[in-house]
Amino acid sequence: MRNTLLIMAGALACLAPSASAQTEAEPYAITADNILVDGGEVLQDGLIVIAGGKIVQVGLEADLKAGLHKDMPVLDHEGWLSAGLVAANGSMGLGSGVDDSTSAFTESLLVAESFNGDHSSVVAARKAGVTSFGLTTGRSNVAGGQGSFVKTDGAKVVNLRTHLTLCMGPPAIQSRRYPTSYSGAVNALEKRFAAGEGAFGAVTAGKLGVTIAVGARHEIDRAIRFCQKAELTGTLRGANRAGEFADRLAEAKLTVIMDAPVIGSPKWHTDSINSLAKAGVPFAFGLADSNAGAGSLRLGASLAVRAGLDRATAWRAITSTAATLAGGGKRAGRIAEGFDADIALWSGDPLSPMTRLESVYIDGALITEGN
Amino acid sequence: MHALKLSLSLTAAALLSSAVLSQDEGDSPKTHEATALVVIEEAPTYLIQANEVVVAPGKTIKNGQVLVKNGMILAVGETVTAPDDAIVVQGETVCAGFMDAWSSLGIDPASVAEMGTGATTETASAVDHFTQDHFRVEARNAGVLLARSQVGKDASIGGLGAVLATSPAGAVVLDDACLSFTCGITRSGRRGDVFDRISEADSIGSRIASGIPYRQSLVEYSYELAEWDKAIAEKEEELADDFKKAKKDRDKEIEKAEEKGKEFKEDRYKEDKRPRAPSLDPDKAVFARAAHGEIPVIVEVHGTQELRALLASTADLPRLRLVLLGATHAMPFAEQLAARRIPVIVRPMAAGQPAEPEFKGHDLGLAGRLEGAGVQVLIGSGGSVAGVRDLPVLAQMAVAHGLSEKAAFEALTIGAARAFDIGADFGTVEAGKHAELIVLNGSPLSGRATYVFTGGELVEL
Amino acid sequence: MSLLRNRTLVPIAASFLFGILPSASAAASDTVVIEAGRIITQAGDDIIDGVIVITDGRISAIGAAADIETPWDAPVMGGPDYTAFPGFVEAHTNRGMDRPNENLDVTPFLNVRDSIDPVNAYFEDCKRWGVTTLNVQQGNNTVVAGNGRIVKPVGVTVEEMTIRPDFGYKISLAPKGGKSRATQRQTLNRTFNDLRDNLTNMVESAKQDEDFARREALGQGRERDADEGEGRAMLGTGWTVDGLEMVKRSSIDEKVLPLLEMVEGRHRTFIYCGAPMDVQPAIDFATMNGLLGTATLVVDDSCWKAADAIKASGMSVILDSNMLHIERDPVTEEETETFVPSVYAEKGIPFALTSANQSTNSLWFQAALCVGYGMDRGAALAAVTTTPADLLGLGEVVGSLEVGHAGNVLLLSGDPLDMTSWVEYTVIDGEKIYDRSKDIRNKHLLYGVEPRGATAIESDASETPSDIEVDGVDKPTDEATEEEVTEEHADGHGDDHGDEKEVEETVKKD
User: Domain B98-208+280-423 is of which CATH architecture?
Assistant: First the structure.
């Protein structure tokens, strides 16, 4: 598929990403055969207007074209347009600086300080259509660093302090430093939450999100009980089996980040996803706890649809819900007025594995052609 | 019997001794053709009605019908004559079931991992419907109805592969579907510098080639034996005619000897020695079949050095039917592959999996580029048993990166069937073929299966 | 036979005994009479207050005491407190041998005669638990193993123990160590293909020799009789090689001859299946090679999944000693337990139980376990008596108490399936070969009685020659003795007199 680019848009095509924001000085519009607004809604022959790095108008081409300024550049895309993908969590760009494992409590550290926006993993992410994600630590600490919401076009941090990561299983619980047991970890955390200082205070005050890293069934069970006891509403991450606890999660108002399904994923994984959807538990796919690359988000969503998940929920799991869980829900993940102009242009329906990515825009600037 | 083999057997049948024949074919004649299904008189008739009847790649009947009974397709068309009690099955699309051309499905995992396989090891003897059978069920429910499976996946010679059905009965459709080798792979502790890998490629060619003089020696022996038999029969007739005289002479000699008091000495009888049978070698018998093109030869090979050596070492075997597996770096040889009509079975993989060195440099665009160069492309799961059910997704990923949808569909259906000699019975929706069919709620590659016809049964999903 | 001592245990209700001869072996024919309050014959109804007469090792009469006339001079065993039961039949075992298998794949030329150890503790256990007939075969870690035999657990040499020599061969469809199923089948198929080719070549060769001899005679003008084949034509329901009568059997290699005889159906074969996927191939293999009528399947506990295929083939099975199959579904992750013998019982497949490796889980225990899991008592008892007897072709000889059968009788203190019952006496071929009152290990276990020889032998110079060392134990405390004795029991060896004792010279020289 060819894009027909007018001159002004062409001058912007080869900008190198850098730390400073690349916003468009001049507004421009993009039309597309299909605009995937938010999972369930598709505009046929739609049009969006971008100005100052934000989406300022969304609608049908028929309705809006006439009202555009006559000199406004219009990009006609044959294919689909959607929001750029969002990974609910990921450690791209951190390299080896994912964890500081010398102490079990490193809650005041900011993960964003190790973020390298030029790292190959970040480049690979945007080439797969991922425009933003929840930067997060690993699992080496009972209370790890504070995560951020970042974009993939350089070290652009959108929201600095989005969530605190807790982990009460291995490898955070080790024999070489305190705490060495689950009950020790719970005890230590309860004390800190009670004391209410720093990050813990911010969590209690509702200013900082909290994410608990889990894996096995019993870890999910314990995390739910911990949250209920401590009266926290947060996110369980790495919770592939969460579907077995769907009702309890819904009751506790917890959300879930899990690995995207891959080729050959066991049936219980997609069953778990379907159970969460049925119980109305918000969930999204993340990259922090699996070895799969950024491409697994879109493939995972289409495999989930193949296993029975409805399209809208599947799409949101890699866009709007992911953005919300990652702490950037007001900025990214939707084609809607006021949202950042993080756009992906596709050869077809992005939920089909037969589709390829054609180009990616972040904050209105063309960042990359697809893979 | 398979056509080529039949002609050889017929001409040689009169001449070959029974010992040679039985050894050459094993303990029973190798039927290199699909096994027929058992006919059940009371079986129901099904009438499939679909908006799109995909008869073959590129050939579709809109709003068509297919009549099925006893696991066979009776008729296909815009309308067909159906009995009143035919069970009607509706769908958006109906097409031929998919075949996984590179698989480990349906066989015992320890046999897949076996490194000690040889030319005569048979995949069909490792069929297992009990261990992890849910993978077969998932594959079947996704429309993958046939799999070309292979034991000794990482061994240098894996032996005879088989085409298995994923139906509940799980028939062995073809028990000698191919002879399999690997070349230059590094899994399972096989290491080697580039010279080792090249010599592996050379040895494949020379082993297959060794089958030719072997069979030649058997054929020559059969001719020599026939001549000797003829000559000796004539001689025996002569001897019988001359017997009376010979007897008289002998009796005279005996008398003479008795008179003289000497011991009687028998005349020495001489005749031409019977030709010596060549020593039988079951491995070479298999190589002979491969060299004469009776069964295809599959080689998993990825690197350019090995590919070059392999293509060179097999260049002088005009009847060899070579198929490449993997072939990560096949593009430099695309012209040669197209000219020699060597198909390539690719394993589309998402980025980052797996990490083995031989797959380094793999990209999803390989299938599309090979197609563009005129090479026949087939698609397989690559031995991941859990991933067989996602075979259509792998095909879609290849399409995203340049493979045409038609070629992808052909790869999963008639292309694979033909490459493994079952194209006469499977792979398209045509009267007279086996009814291995998928009914979908969308297009063949991206739709979801709602019904599956396999092994004479209808499975509702 | 110390019948006199037994007599002290026998109550006086034995009314037809007119006297007790001091010498037990004075009877003109060797006749023994067994009395029991209940006789379970396994061939019909139980007999209350019954009598079994065994003459020359065979049961000559059996019935209610009132109906049977017993020889006045025959020694009597048992009494109204006993229950008589046929000796148990162990359908298949590889215990009691030096090593169950060889390293080579195909070894039909071997014979278990060379590795059975008559003093192995297993045979002692068999006496103790009333197993009187055992089918000893090589183990399952093979492709084709050697010749087995049927033995009784009594005898100083293997020949003495033997009931049927050269009985049965083991074939395994499950992979021998180091192979996978693909290569196992390849070896097995090649073995039988090679057999066929070998025989064909031999026939061919014999034909050619005959043809040459005939032509030579013609050429020399000599009359000659055609050579009658010195061999036998090949029989068999699978494949045959025509003309085998031209080949002398003795000229067939010893490695090959047993295979030929197997295919001809002259030998029983025991085909081992280690997984459900082995069952249909085993049946196909047996059918193709003409073994179906003479083969029995020996199955692993998971093979119940293929029971339908076994039913269709008409074959019988010998079950693994582990009868509870537990597995976890890979999809649902639920654990399921299947009691294996019940599956075969419900499908009507003849099955025999085997004993487990521990001393206590002998055949009575396995049968009792089946009843515990809901099996009909008759079916459970049959699986350790009449069914294995039939499987072994000994249905007319062992497994039940009937006239003409071998005198293999157990006298139990109670019901055979009762946990509190003991085998008080084991009789094989009319001879009492086990008496619990003399079972040292048993007494030690129950009553703390020390084994003979464990107590100090008073060193008495007058009794022992001065230059011979006497194995004796220093007069120890009771605790020390028990420890020693416990060690001896633990290592499983030794006879009634105990093995390792402190050796001490207790010779005193004057």
Answer: Alpha-Beta Barrel (3.20)
Class for the domain spanning B32-97+427-461: mainly beta
CB contact under 8 A, A356 and B393: no
C461 and C337 together in one domain: no
CB within 8 Å of chain B, chain A residues 249-288: 262-267
- Check residue C24 and give its pLDDT: 42
Neighbours of C306 (CB within 10 A): 22
Which pLDDT belongs to residue A318?
A: 97
Q: Which residues of B touch C212 (CB under 8 A)?
A: 271
Of A153-162, A356-365, B436-445, the one with minimum mean pLDDT is A153-162
Q: Which of A217, A240, A268 to mutate to test the interface with C (most CBs of C within 10 A)?
A: A268
Task: Tell me what the mean pLDDT of segment C35-55 comes to.
Answer: 95
Contact list in A for residue B394 (CB cut-off 8 A) is: 263
Min CA distance, A354 vs chain B (Å)?
Answer: 4
A window 245-284, beta carbon within 8 A of C: 266-268
Residues of C in contact with A270 (CB under 8 A): none
> Greater confidence, A102 or A350?
A350
The end-to-end CA distance of chain B, in Å, is 37
Same domain, C297 and C388: yes
CB contact under 8 A, B19 and C185: no
CB B225 within 8 A of CB B273: no
CB burial of residue C482 (10 Å; 0-12, 13-18, 19+)? middle
What's the CATH architecture for A86-326?
Alpha-Beta Barrel (3.20)
For residue C82, what is the domain's CATH number?
A: 2.30.40.10
**Cα C274 from chain centre:** 21
Nearest CA in chain B to C212: B271
Contact at CB, A265 and B352, closer than 8 angstroms: no
Domain boundaries, chain A: 7-84+333-369, 86-326
Q: Can you give the residue range of the structural domain that contains C180?
A: 88-195+255-397
The complex's ipTM works out to 0.88
Residues in chain B: 461
pLDDT value at position C231?
A: 84
Question: What beta strand segments (E) does B57-97 contain?
Answer: 59-69, 72-77, 87-96
CATH for C159: 3.20.20.140
Name the CA radius of gyration of chain B, rounded.
28
Residue C467 has pLDDT above 80, yes or no: no
From CA B179, how far away is CA B122, in angstroms rounded?
10
Distance from CA of C310 to the nearest CA of B (A): 15
Which chains border C (3 or more CB–CB pairs < 8 Å)? A, B
Gap from C333 CA to chain A (nearest CA, Å) = 10
The confidence score (pLDDT) of residue B285 equals 96
Residues C187 and C288 in one domain: yes
Strands C47-55 and C31-39: antiparallel
Q: Are residues C172 and C76 in the same domain?
A: no
Neighbours of chain B (3+ CB pairs under 8 A): A, C
Q: Which CATH architecture has domain A7-84+333-369?
A: Roll (2.30)
- C100-116 residue pLDDT tens: 888 899 999 999 999 99
More confident residue, C145 or C25: C145
pLDDT digits (tens, 9 = 90+) for B261-303: 888 888 888 888 899 889 989 999 999 999 999 999 999 999 9
Query: How close is the nearest chain C Cα to the Cα of A9, in Å?
Result: 53
Q: Are residues C270 and C347 in the same domain?
A: yes
pLDDT tens sequence across C432-443 = 999 999 988 888
Res C480: pLDDT: 41
Check residue C406 and report its DSSP letter: B
Residue linked to tokens 């047993």: C258
Beta strands in chain A (DSSP E): 28-36, 42-51, 54-60, 74-83, 85-90, 130-135, 143-151, 157-167, 209-213, 235-237, 255-259, 283-286, 343-346, 357-362, 365-369
User: Per-residue pLDDT tens for C130-169?
Assistant: 999 999 999 999 999 999 999 999 999 999 999 999 999 9
